[in-house]
Amino acid sequence: MLALGCDHGGFELMQEVKLHLEDRGFEYKDFGCYSTTSVDYPKFAKKVAHAVAEGECEFGILICGTGIGISIAANKVKGIRAALCSDCFSAQATREHNDANILAMGARTIGPGLALKIVDTFLDTPFSNDERHIRRINMIED
Ligand code: RB5
């Protein structure tokens, strides 16, 4: 189960992401927002972050205008490793090295074609389980 959240800046891209996830057979919970009316991104970041941190959802996807504010807010929740990605290399590396549990993207910084490739890369890449990466992740949590 995936947790999805966005603000007004990310709403339109999130509709494309949802269609793509449905095509791929992923189930998701949509924590909003639900229109392009202006909203406050921390509210949606926290909802998705808590759903992931508490185990209700395995991964989250967050989208705002830049992806910056919504990832900063998500990373305030203990156990969350939200990675802002605007390229596939980063999406792969953050799963392999950081075991990122939330993907954040900026709808105003990347196009929808790239965004969907980033989503695929993030969801299809397992954590490496390398000892050095586990050690570093544990140091983040300390
Ligand atoms: C909203 O205008 C915008 O500030 C938000 O989507 C995001 O870019 C914040 O980091």
What is the strand and helix layout of this fold?
Blueprint lengths: L1 E5 L4 H14 L3 E3 L10 H13 L5 E6 L3 H7 L7 E3 L3 H11 L3 E5 L5 H13 L6 H11 L1
Parallel strand pairs: 1-2, 1-3, 3-5, 4-5
Helix pairs in contact: 1-5, 2-3, 4-5
Low-confidence stretches: none
- Catalogue the ligands: D-ribose
CATH superfamily: Sugar-phosphate isomerase, RpiB/LacA/LacB
Going by CATH, the architecture would be 3-Layer(aba) Sandwich
Cα(first) to Cα(last) distance is: 27 Å
Beta-strand content: 15-25%
How much is the radius of gyration in Å? 14 Å
Folded structure, characterized:
By secondary structure, this protein is α/β, with parallel strands linked by helices. The chain has one domain (about 1-95, about 110-140): Sugar-phosphate isomerase, RpiB/LacA/LacB (Ribose 5-phosphate Isomerase B, Chain: A, 3-Layer(aba) Sandwich). Helix content is about 50%, strand content about 15%. The protein has a 5-stranded parallel beta sheet, with helices on both faces. It starts with a strand and ends with a helix. The model has no long low-confidence stretch (mean pLDDT about 100). The structure holds D-ribose. D-ribose (RB5) binds near residues 64 and 66. D-ribose binds near residues 9 and 69.
Summed up, what is this model?
This protein has 142 residues and is of the alpha/beta class. The chain has helices at residues 11-24, 41-53, 68-74, 88-98, 112-124, 131-141; strands at residues 2-6, 28-30, 59-64, 82-84, 102-106.
Summary keywords:
alpha/beta, five-stranded parallel β-sheet, 5 strands, binds D-ribose
